[in-house]
């Protein structure tokens, strides 16, 4: 898969999961987890724009052929943190079917991010 397609997948999934987290928090779909869902939803929503902006505004150069590495790494790390914290909470108190669906989206973002990083790493 081309790096550009992977970037668009990451951006789209971050936007979807951000809105999804905010909706579940707003409608109290997971009692006791509303604040965490809202915070991560807001972070994911903002990350989707950061990944888009960081990739599209910077010009490629000989040294940096694939701008946006920091944004993609940030997205992967935040998704891993959200998956860890949310998974722990889910195991402790349970929750609705929406939570495992969000976990799957986080995993998809992590996989797409790692694939993007591997495809754009400098060849020596």
Description of the molecule:
With 124 residues, the protein is mainly α. It has one domain (3-120). Helix content is 77%, strand content 0%. The protein has helices at 3-26, 34-57, 69-93, 98-120. The relative contact order is 0.19.
Task: Give a concise summary.
The protein has 124 residues and is mostly helical. The chain has four helices and no strands.
Q: State the share of residues found in helices, binned by percent.
A: over 70%
Into how many domains do the coordinates divide?
1
| H-E string | HHHH
Tertiary shape: elongated
Distance between the termini: 21 Å
Percentage beta strand: under 5%
Structural class: mainly alpha
Count of alpha/pi helices: 4
Mean pLDDT: 86
- How many β strands by DSSP? 0
Sketch the major β-sheet. none
Low-confidence stretches: none
> In angstroms, what is the radius of gyration?
15 Å
Task: Give structural attributes.
124 residues, mainly alpha, 77% helix, elongated
